[in-house]
Specification:
CATH class of the largest domain: Alpha Beta
Number of strands: 17
Structural class: alpha/beta
Strand order of the largest sheet: 16-15-14-13-7-12-11-8-17
CATH superfamily of the largest domain: Dihydrodipicolinate Reductase, domain 2
Distance between the termini: 34 Å
Radius of gyration: 20 Å
Number of helices: 10
Strand content: 15-25%
Shape: globular
CATH architecture of the largest domain: 2-Layer Sandwich
Largest sheet: 9 strands, mixed
Number of domains: 2
Order of helices and strands: EHEHEHEHEHEHEHHEEEEEEEEEHHE
Helix content: 25-40%
Length: 370
């Protein structure tokens, strides 16, 4: 019997959709059948750019969900409409690839989780750096004991986000973006959970968070363009703090430190640090008991997460993983249930700014499935 082919609908025609289209097109078990967007022109343009022939185009999501043969829906729309998109796709019985952040409030995440559980569909949230080659190597080394018992982890998202990014107008406001930690720093939170987790394919559960926010850029209409190394006047103002720092205690005892900095004047960086009782990681440099004659850091050659360009990120590996999960009938380690725990840290940070007190997690109880 031949391998089943899964039909795919790409919903949203922005920057990140280019990578979803390419990844599904390159997977032998999937076929992109349709693209939908807020306008028919943008849906058609994205399909044509991807060389999809034939592929239907829609400007009505409800109609697109009824396209014959669609099994998987990739949600590539702005983050403030993810919830309504996920609810509709789950009701239609579609498996879901959900861009991060999955939702912009705990209430949205609660509704999305309930809808997915009722529908019995499978999900993956695009914390795509879990498939970055360096991340995969370090996670495997950690699981094999290269660093001993991990007791502390650190991760930072350093990027002067601004109008150079096509999604900025949708995310620079408190209403739609919510916070720097939610918009993009959630990648660093997820990395923190990933490297704090035991084993090769598990993330740690956050138990307590304390956070502070600051920086200088909130409300300013002058921004730095890191690609042009130039200043831009009259840009849309960021309505939230550009600098957030959080301490996270995990339920396995690991302590974490995470930050997001939209105010930094520098190219994009994503530093990571892992501290164990028998080894240490600084980005791609390793010091480990496995190298008893070590005199200098061992530098790993694997590709680092050192670019904000979506084409740099391992979407192919993520999509291949999800398709394999569907073929095997198992859940992804990065499904919506798990990803909610990453989002909880970002929302707990917001509560800390209001109360100046630590926040215990989880706030969304992991209730039994119906």
């Amino acid at each position: 019997m031949g391998q089943r082919t899964f039909g795919v609908l790409i919903h949203g025609a922005g920057w990140v959709s280019t990578q979803h289209l390419a990844a599904f097109a390159n997977n032998p078990a999937t076929r992109v059948l349709a693209v939908s967007s807020r306008t028919l022109a943008s849906a058609r343009r994205r399909a044509q750019e991807a060389g999809l022939k034939p592929a239907a185009s829609y400007d009505n999501f409800a109609e697109a969900l009824r396209h014959p043969g669609v099994d998987i829906v990739a949600i590539c729309t702005p983050q403030q409409v993810h919830c309504e998109n996920v609810l509709a796709a789950a009701r239609a019985g579609k498996h879901l690839v959900i861009e991060k952040p999955a939702g912009i409030s705990l209430a949205e995440l609660r509704r999305m989780r309930a809808a997915v559980r009722r529908a019995g569909v499978k999900t993956i949230v695009s914390f795509v750096l879990r498939w970055n080659p360096l991340f995969r190597k370090l996670k495997a080394m950690s699981a094999q004991g290269a660093f001993g018992r991990v007791y502390s982890v650190e991760a930072d998202y350093l990027s002067h986000n601004g109008s150079w990014w096509s999604g900025w107008a949708d995310t620079c406001t408190v209403k739609n973006g919510v916070s720097a930690m939610l918009v993009a720093g959630c990648h660093a939170i997820d990395a923190l959970r990933w490297f704090a987790g035991d084993g090769e394919f598990a993330a740690a559960n956050p138990a307590e968070v304390f956070a502070l926010a600051g920086g200088y850029r909130k409300g300013r209409t002058t921004e730095f363009n890191p690609f042009r190394n130039a200043w831009v006047e009259g840009a849309p103002a960021m309505e939230y703090n550009g600098l957030e720092m959080a301490l996270v205690k995990f339920d396995n005892g690991v302590l974490g430190k995470v930050s997001v900095n939209f105010d930094c004047i520098m190219p994009y960086r994503f530093p990571i640090r892992i501290f164990g009782d028998r080894g240490t990681v600084f980005d791609n440099r390793v010091w480990s008991h496995q190298f008893p004659q070590q005199q200098q850091w061992v530098e790993l050659p694997d590709l680092q997460p050192d670019s904000s360009d979506v084409s740099h990120h391992p979407f192919q590996a993520e999509i291949d993983h999800f398709v394999e999960c569907l073929q095997r009938g198992v859940e992804s380690h990065c499904n919506l249930e798990d990803a909610i725990l990453t989002h909880e840290v970002a929302f707990a940070a917001l509560e800390c700014y209001r109360t100046r007190r630590p926040v215990r997690l989880p706030r969304l109880k992991q209730s039994p499935r119906p």
